[in-house]
Every structure is written in structure tokens, then in C-alpha cells.
Model the fold of this input.
Amino acid sequence: MRNLLELITIILPVLYAVLIWLYALLVVNREKRITRISATLFTVTLVIHLLYTALLAVYKHYFPVTTPGELLSLSALFIALLYWLLERKLKVITTGMFIFIALFFLQFLSAFLIDLSAPVDEVLQEPMFLFHVSSVVVAYSALFICTLFSIIYLVLYHSLKKARFGFIYQISFSLEELSRFSYLSGIIGFILLSVTIVTGILWRKEAFPDLAHFDPQVVVSYLIWSIYGIFIYGKYRRSWSAKRLSYLSVGGAGVIISSLIIVNYLLQSFHQFG
Amino acid sequence: MAHNNIYILGVSHQRAGFDLLSRAAFSPEEQLEFPRILLARPLIAEACIVSTCNRNELYVRTEGRTLTREELKKCWQDFNPRLTEKDFEFFYLWENEQAIEHLFRVTAGMDSLIPGETEIVGQVKSAFRRAASASFTGIYLNHLFETALQVEKRVRTQTSISVGAVSVAYAAVELAQKIIRRMSDKKALLIGSGETGQLVALHLKQKGIGHIYVANRTGAHARTLAEKFSGEALPLQDIHKVLPEVDLVVGATASPDYMISGPMMRQVMKIRNQRPLIMIDIAIPRDFDPALSRFENIFLHDMSSLEKIVENNKTRRREEFDKAGVIIREETGKFLQWCRGLELKPTIISLRRKMEDIRNGEIEKYRHRVDEAHWVLVEQITRGLLNKILHLPLSNLKEMEGGQGEVHRKINLVREIFDLREEENV
Done:
């Protein structure tokens, strides 16, 4: 099984790289044959990725979310899965190229970082912890898609306002769809982030009863939760425009990225697992 | 042995102006009359006329000899005396491979005024049907036109030659679809009765827009237009009442003043609650105040925007020509091979028959010296030998390279070497 896992670890980034190439081809040539091949390869890659995660879980005897390599791979899987569902719903494939660039980098980094023989602390194998980390991975994946659609929305919005009918105008689907799926991803991300925070609070009391309440990463999670909370409040209670919400979503993503950098590299936090 | 040649003599928008194109045009009756006259001549075996507003082309196949430009020109000029000697300087003549490629390009919309347009497919199809139903076409032109229609499908599915709006009216709809998703739950307002405005409304209707309001200065005209689009007529002074609920407004009046101004929209946008509004101004002078584009949720576009979209799409379509050209060259090669096969068939049959006769004659001499059991074996051995001997020359014959003339020369050479007479043909 180890050999198979090592093989798939190498194959997955290659498959995502091929998908970047195929989806880039689709931007310039919407040939039915390429569309069919791309859609099939995407499904096959997703199945392989799911299989890889399941095999990894069987091999390691726990859900693979405890090391950075595993987390990156799982994030890629959830983003791919969410996008796969959106692609089938929207029937627009030209934005896939952007998603696959992100997926390639996540899986490529994961392939470098993943260590099949690394021992894992027992506390990190508890079901509550696994649930806590899985939910945060799905939450951040959904927020990533929310941000990506928000960025495309803003670019298309300004293109349309200034009558510039270039690349994004050609490949993108409508502003209405972009905003709709951006909200949807934002809501999914917000709900799962809420679940993450709640499970984190409950599990922390059991596993680390002596630790301080204000762990930097927890504080940052509250901040992100607040930003997306404002996002949802602004949409449904204040009727903010899609443009304003998109800026808020992009700002939220900026906070996530900077928090990850600050928390993981500059501050001491108990959120350094393994 | 009959040599087949396919010719096209024609004139199109590429070289000629509207005046010449209209003088060279064929009426539906003439499209039946002219081929009939041509087919009465012994050298012409098949004929078809493709006559559209952008091209007039005569397709003929000859049997047994070649035709010159002068001969074809004379036929056309005799039929249509309105065409002068000077007019024919703008005509083109394509033969065989070039003629086949030309028809494929024409049908794929690569020779059209609007690159990649699809109207030409219907025009070529109906021209071919007309000629075929009058029995003006035979095995060659039937296969040529049927192949052209298949090639057109292949080009359109394998390239983006027909992607993107190439008319201003359709560009307006394409633009709207970049802002709103589903048309069925959306409403549009057409102000005025300009031709392009009506076309936009028609395209919106075809895309399944939920509801269309039509506002016009004269109530009767508004009602007529509303009926045409299964919409609702509206007096011009009432447009402010529907502005909060519509998603798209098209301005196509001849009014010297703005129909919709900034202050009017300020109130409307408050009621709309951030819902985007697409405003397409195709009127000259403008119907909508250009300052409206400053509103966050108003997407105001005029003729220059739409023309820009059309030009971009045309350029992108032209960029697909290289890819389409590869398909067309490949299909032209296949068609030529089919022609070659058809022309070779009698020669191959004659050659086989001749060899079979020799084999039969030779083994018959030994018939009485071989018993029945061995005779079957002799038959098998000699037939196998013959097949092996003929395999290489026949394969080479089928895959012969070179132009039509060269192929005919080689076929004649084979017939001469093996003394295959014309009456041996099947």
C-alpha cells in the first residue's frame, strides 16, 4: 500500500498540471472533444484524490489531517470537490484554469511535505480533533472559492463598466452567477468555521485544559469568522451590493493569508501540530 | 476512360461590388434554367448554381475533357448578356483540388463577409437540393456537396469559428448575459422602434426573456411592436413606472433629448435595492444620459461598446481560420482520394478480369492432367499467386500522388500497358 500511496503522491500534482493545460486550451478552443476529455480527467482525478485520502486514512489509522502535507492535500480535495459540483451546476468550465493552478500548488507542496512514516501524537488522533481540523479545511476551501469568484467578479465588473471586453469577459460566466456562488461558498465557509470554533473550544478544554484562551490562531479565526459574518449580514440584512461584498471577501482572504503567515512563522501557538 | 474535372466560375464580395453581384445573380428560375442549358452540351456532366447576396458561383463537372475559362465565361455571358467582358475580370475560376477546397471554405463560412456566419450553410444546402432534385447533379457533385456540409459541421464543432456575436443586436444580448444569468425571470424595456432595437428585442425573446415592455411615442405603434414580441405596450411618459422592475433597457428612439436622465434614475436605483440594470443605448443621438454609468449598478453601453464586441469576436473567429484550414485540407485530400477511387474502379476491375482470364486460360491447359482433389489446390495456389502479384500495383494505383492530370496520365499508362480496352469497363 505504501508503494501505491507514494505513486499517487507523485501522480496527483501531475494530473492537476495536465488539467491546467487542458482548461487553458478550453479558453482558446471550446472543442467538444477537449471539453469531454477535460471533464472526464477532472472526474478521474477527483476519484483518485478521494481514493488517495481513503488509502492514507487506512494506512495511517486516522483521518489524514494532522500534518501540513495532509492538510494541504485535503484542502485541495475539498476545493476540487466543491468546484466539481459548481462546474456541473453552472455548466461553465472556462474559469477552471484558475482553480487548477491553486490545486496544483497545494498538491505539489503536499507531495513535498507529506511523510508517510511520521509518527503522530495520540492526542491528534482523537475523533473530535479530526472533526475540528476537517471542518476548518472545508471552511477555508469554501472561503477560497468565495474569494476566487469575488476576484473574478471584481475584474469582470470593472471590465464591463469600462467597456473592456478582454480575456475575463470572454472566459467568465455572468456577474449574477459569480456573486451567487460567491455567497454560497461564503455561507458554507462561515457555517463550517463556526463549527470549527465550537469544536475547538470543546476539544481544547479536554485535551489542553491548562492552555491560555488567546491563542493567536484562535484569535485570527474569530477575526475571519467576524469578517464573513459581516459578509452574510451585509448581504441579507443590509442588501449590500455584490461589488462591496466581493471587496469584503477579498479582504477576508487577505486576513487569512496574513494570519497564516504571522501565526505560523512569527508567533508561538499551540496550533503547531505533530 | 473518362477524365473528370470539377470547375467553379464565380464572383463574390471579396472582389466585386454590390452592382456586379446583383447583375451576376440568378433568380430561382434561372438557377434551374442555366444548368439545363449547360447540361445540353455534351462535355458537361453535372452542374449546380450557388447564388446568394454575396456570391454567384457555377459548379460544373466535365467528363472526358477539360474546360477553359473562356468556354465557361462564354456560356455564362450567353445566358446573362447583362454581364460585360470587363465584369469577368472580377470572376475567379477554380479547378479540381482548388475548387473542392473553395466549396469547403465557403460552406464553413470562411469566405463570408462575416467570418464563420452560418446562413451560408442553408444557402449552399438549398442550392444543392434544387440542383439535385432537378437531376443536374450526379455522383461527383452529390458527394462534393454532401461532404462540404459534413466538413462544415466538423469545422464548427472542432474550432471556435462561429463563437461570439457578430451583429450589434446580438452583441447586446451577449453583453447582457455577462451580467444576468437566467433570462426567464428577467424583464426588458424597449424604448422606441429603431430596427436594431427591435432585433435586440427579438434576440431577447429567442433567449427566453420573461417579459418585454415596449414604449413608443405613438400608442398604436407600441401596441403593434408589443404584439410582435408578445410583450406589453407602454406610453413613453410611463417608462419611469417600470424602470424599478426591469433588468435591461434598450434605447432606440430618434428623440433629440435624453429619455432617461441621472435624477430620474437616482430615485429608481433606490427602489431597485442594488439590483443591476443593463442599459443599451443604440439611439443616435443618445437616449440615455452618459452620466448614468457612474451609478454603481448601472451598466451603460452604447453602439461603440457593441461594435467593439463585434470586432473582437470577428478577430477571434478569423484566428480560427488556420485550424479550420487544416481540417479543410485534410477533407479535400479525402475527397480527392474518393474521386481517384471512383475513376480507378473500372481500370482495377478490367485489370483483375484480364489477369483472371489469363490464369483461367493457363490452368485450363492442365485440367485433364490433374484429379479433382488436386484441382481445388491448383485453383487456390494460382488465385493466391495472382492476388499477391496484383496487390502491390493495385495498392500503388489507389494511393497515386499528383494532380488530377498526372493521375489520369498514369491510369492511361496502366490501361495501355495491360491493353485494357474501354468496353471492358464495368
Notes: The beta strands of chain B are 4-12, 44-51, 55-63, 92-95, 187-191, 211-216, 232-235, 248-251, 277-281, 298-302. Residues 358 and 364 of chain B are 10 Å apart (CA to CA). Chain B has a mean pLDDT of 88. Chain B has 15 helices and ten strands.
